[in-house]
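pinning this so it doesn't scroll away 📌
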Amino acid sequence: MIAYRIVAVPEREEQARALARKVGGLVILDVNHDGAFPNHVRALASADNATHVVVLEDDAILCGDFTDHVKALIAERPTHLLGLYVGRMFPKRPQPMIGELVSSEPRWLDHPQITDRLRWGVGYVMPVKDIPAVLAALEAGVQHPWIDTDGRLGRWHAERGLLSYPYPSPVDHDDNLPSTTSQHETGRVAWEHCQKGAA
């Protein structure tokens, strides 16, 4: 069983609930604006009755047959944390390496300079059996509510060689929405977004 969780701020609740309807998921609303990090943690902690949890941010754009695609990806790498979005522009350091990798049209972006951390929290899949260990490791780290949410969430799997990025990305980022945490810069989109079916 796959659980779907949409992390959202109140200003984007309507958009988040539309996403939730598409995937049969639940919205985890940051009612008090506690920050992205604690809201992602709440989303993970709420999925204890599933085998995997898919966490999507409220500005995610899904490929047309998203849930079927996610099932297929999990079947290929069931023990891995799957980063469902690979973004252009940010972060800057891995962009040249990503450009080299995607030129060969890979199925997975398997390179240690990419899989050393979860770089984008727009969408990811985590095996539920790993969540207690991940949460325990998070409790021992820095608890800033906004900074490096994706990096901290992905550290446990990355350290064990259990982080993968499928390509093209099943999730894109809605670049038309202004950031809720920083000045908006355009170009925050996927290198390639798989459009296997009608969106």
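📌 and the second one:
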Amino acid sequence: MNIPIGLYPATRREELSFKLLRESDLSPINYKRVAEADGKEVPWDQIVKGFEYEKGKFVVLKEEDFDRVELESTQTVDITDFVDLKDVDPMFFTKPYYMEPEKGGEKAYALLREALKTTGKIGIAKVVIRTRQYLAAVKPEERGLVLELMHFANELVDPGELKVPSAKEVGKKELDMAKSLIDTMSGEWHPEQYKDEYRDAVMKLIDEKVEHGGELPGKPAPARKPTSVIDLVAVLQKSLDQTQGARKKAEKEPAKPAAKPAKAHHPRKKAA
């Protein structure tokens, strides 16, 4: 079954962009492409791609070499297997894309979505995006299908290499108190209530510095408190008391009106 689709990024990262400047006159700093052997600047037309197969030894790959590596189905999402979603470790999933049916593919698209929903399965596929091949999963969502890029098995670090404590090192009293804290703090999932507070704080600082001509009068940043060995039981008890108190206070206050949903960003269409 073939379904014509278009791929659209399902996430966006609003990163803050900073430039390096000379302190004396705020002149932007530019980088030069300098050869390690003699320190001379190298123009773009003299730069090639090389793979270091041994320390200090390289093999050069040209554009025609990359063209020889032909990957099948470079414009398709080829589903090869169906597996239970519950059997796939979430660590494998990396980046989601929305899948939108194109003209003529609506019925088959809906059929695949509903079949995956009712069976609890996901489709495992191979897909090429920007010349790189990825493992991917086709997953049903409320109204559509999502293609989520995945790690290959050899890209995940074996957790057996980590030095972690065993369950035997956990005391019953601490475990009961931790479970009580989790139960007290448990609630429904509302993703819109979580904000990037660090980004907001940095943007507020930038706005204030622009308003004051680049200088910001005020108190210096508070010194970080040194870390020390803690009494886990005492910390859990304090957290439990604070959480219960905050929840009782929230229950007494009137509910705030729900915020208006943000407008969806519609990125440029990508071929799949």
